[in-house]
Amino acid sequence: MKLPYAEPFKIKSIEMLKRTTKEERVKLIKEADYNLFNLKSDYVYVDLLTDSGTGAMSDKQWAEIMIGDESYAGARSYYKLKNTIKDLLGFNYFLPTHQGRAAENVLFSVLVKEGDIVPGNSHFDTTKGHIEFRKAKAVDCTIEEAFDSTFIHPFKGNVDIIKLEKVLQENPIEKIPMVIMTLTNNTSGGQPVSMANLKEVSILCKKYGTKLIIDSARFAENSYFVKIREDGYQDKTIKEIVKETFSYADGMTMSSKKDAIVNMGGFIGLKDEELFKQASTFNIIYEGFITYGGMSGRDMGALAQGLDEGTEFDYLESRIKQVAYLGQKMKDYGIPVMEPFGGHAIFVDAKKFFPHIPQSEYSAQLLGVELYIEGGVRGVEIGTLLADRDPVTREDRYPKLELLRLAIPRRVYTNNHMDYIAASLKNVFDRRDEYKHGLKILDEAPIMRHFTVKLDRI
Ligand SMILES: *Cc1c(COP(=O)(O)O)cnc(C)c1O
Fold first, then answer.
1. What pTM did the predictor assign?
2. In this predicted structure, what is the pLDDT of residue 384?
3. Would you place residue 188 in the very low, low, confident or very high pLDDT band (cuts 50, 70, 90)?
4. Does the beta carbon of 157 sit less than 6 angstroms from any atom of ligand 1?
5. Which residue out of 49, 125, 186 has the highest number of ligand 1 atoms within 8 Å of its CB and is therefore the one to mutate?
6. What is the rounded CA–CA span in Å between residue 97 and residue 105?
7. From the CB of 407, is ligand 1 less than 6 Å away?
8. Is CATH 2.40.50.180 correct for 59-309?
9. Where along the chain do its domains lie?
10. Does residue 340 have a cis peptide bond before it, meaning omega lies within 30 degrees of 0?
């Protein structure tokens, strides 16, 4: 008999979960104003709100917590991280920050000015937030195939080179401080970018004289997809692919809470000394001195170890196979999910799930609410609430895809949990015609409203 796949690790420490009844959850979600961010995690059984900062650290990472050096300047843990970033990613200069958006804040404080244009492949919400906050514009150049949730394409995170070149041609280049490539593409479904595409983008950036910055949160998962899907990479190690990935970039911002498998942290990697010097000033103002920038020594140690573990094939295989296991279960139940499955999450297509509920009634949010009520499973809306209002017209922006994202924390849940999630969603799916209306907004913040929005049933 062929042996089944099994995880390359065993469990050393566990955390007990609370269970609630369906009746309790009906009340709890109402009290939370139908906003899943407002729920107490004690009342969530399987938490798929995000894969950010929710991973389980390894024994070796916990060991780093113990041996961390908390010196204000020049800490041993800082040098451990600096050397890892140099060896693994190839950046000579780096600045620690407290998380990914802080890295964006520091770097964009140097690079982005009012009226600027920043093209890329579906910028992440905080990235877009930091661009728009500076009165600049994020231009999405992702390939059209990415917006068809069932179109099979191995690299749906790719940029449309023609669209990108048009933006570079039609605008004064001094208005385009950089192109941002997000690996993997979070907003359009955790979809990878091919090495060939990244290379082409870097050639364009050089041709027109702008920088290529990689928003790197899931660079390791991206490298796994390159290895298994792109010609010429099958025999390369993940670490070799990672090295090549960053060889095309001038800089990177990192949310270490994703592929570096720590609970908090971020950093900026740079090749240019002058840019590093300019960014250092902002790092000191916003984050902390340049050898700790918002991180404890022990956390920098755990991050260095996490970067090393997170770029090992065996780990990545277990990770991505678990996500695909969940996706396949749902597909088998007939639930409309985005394909191919992304690296960190399964995305349920709310327009197809609830075809009778318009986007103006936040159908993906409704789906999230109903999944919580059914099984105590918490996902997150990646749709109209997240897309927010147009900064000029203040009208709701309707994205092409209205999705419920089920993000899988790293090394946290078992495949029994995946079975439970799929069954919960199937029960909602079987009753889908009974839901007549979606949700309406009672109160919202002027920017990044999805975190605090108050909703009610229509
Ligand atoms: C999470 C994330 C960020 C922001 O990082 P935080 O650590 O949450 O501040 C930026 N870009 C991408 C692609 C992300 O996934």
1. 0.94
2. 94
3. low
4. no
5. 186
6. 10
7. no
8. no
9. 22-51+313-457, 59-309
10. yes
